[in-house]
Structure formats: structure tokens, C-alpha cells
Structure to design on (146 residues):
């Protein structure tokens, strides 16, 4: 019974991590990343430049974090590493670009930050390219003791 319970726990955890990777990546890509690519010229005129580097650098950084990295995260390829630019861009947006926002005003950004920090901490799970490349079986978990 303990083995079945452990297997179910691991499977549900892996399903949850897969869901977070796919859903979070899709939302970030669709809502933030792809519009920046298809409206690049327009975005150059309105993107914030919190560090005075000119508009091209923050826009290209955002495109990398919101288009390229979500593709890697969704596939589970170099997942933890791919989460770092996403987390960085979200932190800059929430802390440096929009410090006046309340949590309610910035809830979408904070929620995305929560999702990608969680993925970075937990890893991609068993259903990922990372797990396939490493070739190690997922560690078995001991069931909780009553």
C-alpha cells in the first residue's frame, strides 16, 4: 500500500508541475511575449527603460524572457535555468518599473512570478526533456506517517 500511495503522490506532483509549466508558459508567451514580437516597432516607443540603457535592450530582454524561455520551460528543457530570465524580468517590472502598483493592480505579474519561482524551486518534474536527458528515475517518496 505504501508503494502505491508513493507512486500516486509522485504522479500527481508530476502532473501538477507539467500543468504549471504548460499553463504558465502559454499565458506568459501569449499575453506578453508574442505581442512584443509582432508589434516590435510600436513596443520600442512605449517600453519603460528603468536603467537608462535605451529601449532596445529592455525590449529584447523581455522578448527573450517571454518568448524563448517559456518554450524551454514548457518543454522542460533547461527548466530551472530558463526560469531565471523570466523571474528577473518580472521582478524588474514589479519592483523597478511599477513600484507604485498595489498588489491588486499588479496581481497578474505577482502571480506569474509565483508560478515561475515555484517551477524554478521544484524543477520540471518527471514529464520533461530534462528528466529524459538525465535518465534518472524520479526519487521515491516515503508516505507521510500518521
Amino acid at each position: 500500500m505504501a508503494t502505491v500511495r508513493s507512486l500516486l503522490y509522485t504522479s500527481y506532483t508530476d502532473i501538477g508541475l507539467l500543468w504549471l509549466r504548460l499553463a504558465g508558459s502559454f499565458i506568459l508567451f501569449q499575453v506578453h511575449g508574442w505581442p512584443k514580437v509582432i508589434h516590435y516597432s510600436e513596443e520600442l516607443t512605449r517600453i519603460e527603460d528603468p536603467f537608462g540603457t535605451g529601449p532596445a535592450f529592455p525590449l529584447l530582454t523581455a522578448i527573450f524572457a517571454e518568448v524563448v524561455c517559456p518554450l524551454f520551460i514548457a518543454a522542460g528543457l533547461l527548466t530551472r535555468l530558463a526560469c531565471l530570465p523570466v523571474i528577473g524580468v518580472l521582478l524588474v517590472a514589479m519592483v523597478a518599473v511599477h513600484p507604485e502598483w498595489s498588489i491588486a493592480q499588479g496581481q497578474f505579474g505577482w502571480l506569474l512570478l509565483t508560478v515561475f519561482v515555484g517551477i524554478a524551486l521544484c524543477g520540471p518534474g518527471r514529464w520533461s526533456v530534462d528528466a529524459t536527458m538525465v535518465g534518472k528515475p524520479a526519487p521515491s517518496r516515503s508516505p507521510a506517517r500518521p
In short: Residues 2-134 form one domain. The first helix runs from residue 2 to 38.
